[in-house]
Amino acid sequence: MRGGLVYLPTLNGTAILDRLFEMVDSESREAFACITARREHGVKSVDVEQPRLAIILRGKKQVRCGAVQIDYAPGDLFLMTAGCRLDVVNLPDPVEGLYLTVAIPFCDEVIAAARLLWARPVTQSDAKIAKFPLDQFERELLQWADAMTNRQYVIARLALAALAVRLCELGYTNLLVSPPPSLTARVRALVSEQPDRDWQSRDFEHEFGMSGATLRRRLATEQTNLRDVIRAARLACALDLLYTTRWPVKTIAAKVGYRSAPSFVHKFTERYGLEPAQIGNT
Predict the structure, then answer these.
(1) Residues 230 and 116 in one domain
(2) What is the DSSP letter of 120?
(3) Do both 210 and 155 map to the same domain?
(4) Is residue 150 part of a domain?
């Protein structure tokens, strides 16, 4: 057992699955998210703002993106491109009572390097999510894991860039498409850095060099408003914390700027379609 997680031999024996299990409690965890759940649950309308990979280690996952639905099992690699919205169901392993996934983000530096390596036109397609057998990318992922363990971060990013190019060769150039810049995304990114801060309009006016009227008008053209963007960013941070920690709901509420736990639970349930405790980690 590592960190309260039961470790059993991997189902298909691939080296990278065993390597990822070793990394779950290592100091390299700042490079990825270890997502756990101890109850079956569904989450609606999860926004993916950065392309990433998810590797299923325990349990199963069902994902719907628009009209596309894909089921994932241990040993599957799940690709998400930026800008997609997902409805997901996470199902813990019936024997271990645990759902466990490792999520690896493609940071801006990795995407920029992959664009240089690809050196071909990038086209937008309808493919927002995909499923691959993990051993198809075992070499690149092992290089990434070894580099992260040895704190060789440049080599780790290059390994992910090489993996991204492999995905492009398979037709998933969506990975390299940057969503059009939006004020909403900039506000969300700022709030995500300090979700517990008492954010006011003047904070964003100062940060972005615009008046309050301009801020409101720009957000209105993006069919939103400042209060809703701040709330969405805080709740997204809360969702991450619910999956990656075992903190009580009251603690998570405070961490993302809610003084009232009941108010947080109400807003979270309204946004994602489930109560925070349904994930089962708290």
Answers:
(1) no
(2) S
(3) no
(4) yes
Q: Average model confidence (pLDDT) for the chain?
A: 91
- At residue 10, the pLDDT reads 42
Distance of CA 1 to the CA centre of its chain: 25
**pTM higher than 0.85:** yes
pLDDT digits (tens, 9 = 90+) for 77-119: 999 998 899 999 999 999 999 999 999 999 999 999 999 999 8
C-alpha span between 198 and 222 (Å, rounded): 23
Domains identified in the chain, total number: 2
Q: Residue holding tokens 């051993």?
A: 135
The answer to whether residue 23 sits within a structural domain is yes
Question: What is the predicted pLDDT for the residue at 29?
Answer: 63
Amino acid 203 reads D
By C-alpha distance, which of 81, 153, 150 is closest to 111? Answer: 81
Q: What is the 3-state secondary structure (H, E, C) of 154-215?
A: HHHHHHHHHHHHHHHHCCCHHHHCCCCCCHHHHHHHHHHHCCCCCCCHHHHHHHHCCCHHHH
